[in-house]
Amino acid sequence: ILDSQFVVDIGVDAYRARTREYLDALGADVDVWEIGNEVNGEWLGATSDVVRKISGAYDEAKGRGVRTALTLHYDEGCVDAPDHEMFAWAGAYVPPAMRDGLDQVLVSYYEDDCGGRRPDWPAVFQRLARMFPRAALGFGECGTARSAAKEQQLRLDYGTRIDEPRFAGGFFWWYFSEDMIPKTRPLWGVLRGIMAGG
Question: What is this structure's pTM?
Answer without folding.
Answer: 0.95
